[in-house]
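Session log. Operator J.P. requested a structure for one protein chain; no other inputs attached. Running the standard single-chain path with token output.
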Amino acid sequence: MATKSKKKAYVKLQCGACKRVNYSVKKSKGQDIEKKLELSKFCSWCRGHKPHKETKK
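Structure written below.
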């Protein structure tokens, strides 16, 4: 039977252009805990692909 891994945490991603929180994703709590996650995601308010950065909870 599979067990739940406690090495991941949910983080919120905020649009770099309009500053709205659009996504929540799982992030590994391993070696890169101090680095902020940055992904190019689609923002429905800006209507385009924009860089999204990790925010505080």
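Operator note: Strands lie at 8-15, 21-28, 38-43, 48-54.
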